[in-house]
Amino acid sequence: MKYFLLMPTLIFFLLFTLWPIIKVVEMSCYQTNFIITRFVGLQNYVDLFHNEAFIQSIKNSLLYITILPLLNVIVSVSITFLIADLSKKWQDISKILIYIPVLGGGIILAQVWRWVFAIDGLMNWILSLFHIAPVYWFGNSVTSIVVICVIVVIASFGGYIIMLLAALTSIDKSIYEAAKIDGASDFQIKIKIILPLIKSTIALIYLLSMIASLQIFEYIYALVPQQYAATITYNIYVTGFKNSKWGLASAQAVILMVITFILSYFQRKIGNESNK
Is 6 buried (19+), middle (13-18) or exposed (0-12) by CB count in 10 A? Predict the structure, then answer.
């Protein structure tokens, strides 16, 4: 009976997860635009590493997964500690405010950011107050990546803060009281007691942020006119939907899956070791 109850989940997994993965791996061995299809083996994978756009997307993706998880952890932990010191009323208000960017759709929020970083937008208006020349924020790879990082952190930290606040509520209040009796300052309590107690949540946030960093798409699609800040995900879209090179796009998707699995494995291993 218990196995029968698992059947809907198993069928859903086979049809909508395992089968698409198998088909993507199969398609990666073909050169196809759905009109002409030719088996080429591993040639698509070889061609990828001679493809300048793909190489640049790999570099950008590695940059994102290096910077964004660290930024997300620092920002989320810092704001969580600030909110935790507020009264219950202001904590509730803060939770609502910080979660608003999470609720907004990526493309919708991208239009707001387009106005903020436009050549005649808010950021350049602020710079003009200090007599600084306007900046074309999406005119080169450096400023494009910096802006995308800022946008992604602001759009995602609300969810991470909610996770951290939930982790804080699970800590026994007597631990705080004992630390204060021993003469520990608020800063020492946060750094030496609270952080170690919520390290598993921080490790999870780091992992989720790493995986999300590989999947950045909508902000690049809506804001960056060139492939200055493109991730592997965005390059898959360009290769498949714009250039109709489905075999090459599938090969990139397979590489992205492998990278995601490897990151998940090592992050879980690190998390398990930190919990020992």
Answer: exposed
pTM of the shown model: 0.83
Q: Is the pLDDT of residue 272 over 70?
A: no
- Would you say 222 and 107 are in contact if contact means Cβ atoms under 8 Å apart? yes
- Which residue from 45, 59, 55 is spatially nearest to 248, judged by alpha carbons? 45
Around Cβ 12, how many Cβ atoms within 10 Å?
Answer: 10
Structure tokens at 225: 């006119």
Q: In degrees, to the nearest 5, what angle opens at C-alpha 224 toward C-alphas 144 and 61?
A: 60
Question: Which pLDDT band, with edges at 50, 70 and 90, does 177 fall under?
Answer: confident
Per-residue model confidence (pLDDT) at position 155: 87
Residue 260 in this model has a pLDDT that exceeds 80? yes
- In this structure, the dihedral spanned by the alpha carbons of residues 265, 62, 246 and 21, taken in order and rounded to 10 degrees, is 10
* Beta carbons of 156 and 102 less than 8 angstroms apart: yes
Domains of the chain: 57-165+196-274 (1.10.3720.10)
